[in-house]
Amino acid sequence: MHKLRLTHMIAAAALLGALPLSAQQKRISPHETISAVIGERRTGNRITITYGRPYTKDPKTGEPRKIWGGLVPWGKADRLGADEATLLITQQPIMIGATTIPAGAYTLYTVPSENGPTKLAFSTNIGKWGVPVDETHDLARVDLTKDTLEKPVDQLTLAVENNPAGGGVLKIMWENTQFSVAFINNK
Q1: pLDDT, tens digit, for every residue of 15-69?
Q2: Which phi and psi (to 5°) does residue 161 adopt?
Q3: Of 9, 91, 114, 156, whose CB is crowded by the most CB atoms within 10 A?
Q4: Are 58 and 29 in contact (CB under 8 A)?
Q5: CA angle, 50 as apex, 7 and 89 as ends, to 5°?
Q6: What are the pLDDT digits (tens) for 77-107?
Q7: SS (H, E, C) the chain
Q8: Is 174:67 a contact under the CB 8 Å cutoff?
Q9: Where are the domains of the chain?
C-alpha cells in the first residue's frame, strides 16, 4: 500500500512537470531538485523538494536586490523560490512541533516577518505557478527559526538534512539570512 501511494505521488509530480511550456509561464531562474532520507537508510523518510533558485541580482538589470523586506516583502505570503511553486514530497508523515504533515505532496511558501516569527506554509494546492499565492488551501503554517549567515548566499538555497539530535531539518538560505525548522518522522 505504501509503495502504491508513493508511486501515485511520483506520477503526479512527473505529470505536473511534464505540462507543455505553453501551459506554463516562462522560467527565469535555474531549478533544482533536492532529496534526503531522514532517519535510517532502509526505513527512513525520503523528502524531495523541487524549486526555482533566483539570484540576489535582478535578472534583467544585473543590479543587486534587497531580498528580505525588499523582493520578499514583510508580512505578506510569498512564494518560496521562483517560477512554478516550490513542491515538497514526503513519503511518510512528519511532525513539526505539534503539527503533523501527512505523507504527500505540498506547495511551500513563506510569510516573512521583520519582527515576529517567519512562517513556512504547507499548501495542498499543488501544480500552480508561484504567484499569486493561494492561502485558502493551507494545511499548516509553522514558525521558522531565523539566523544570520556568516557568508552571504547569492542564490536561494534550500536544504533537507538529518538533524544530529534526531529527525531532520529544513533550511532556507538566501542573502544574509537562514531560516530553519526541525521535524521528526511520524510513522
Answers
A1: 455 444 434 578 889 999 999 999 988 889 999 999 999 999 988 898 999 999 9
A2: -135, 155
A3: 156
A4: no
A5: 40
A6: 999 999 999 999 999 999 999 999 999 999 9
A7: CHHHHHHHHHHHHHHHHCCCHHHCCCCCCCEEEEEEEECCCCCCEEEEEEEECCECECCCCCCECCCECCCECCCCCEECCCCECEEEEECCCEEECCEEECCEEEEEEEECCCCCCCEEEEECCCCCECCCCCHHHEEEEEECEEEEEEEEEEEEEEEEEECCCCCEEEEEEEEEEEEEEEEEECC
A8: yes
A9: 2-185
At 8, give phi and psi (nearest 5°). Answer: -65, -40
Whole-model pTM? 0.86
Whole-angstrom Cα distance, residue 57 to residue 145?
Answer: 25
Q: Which amino acid is at 127?
A: G
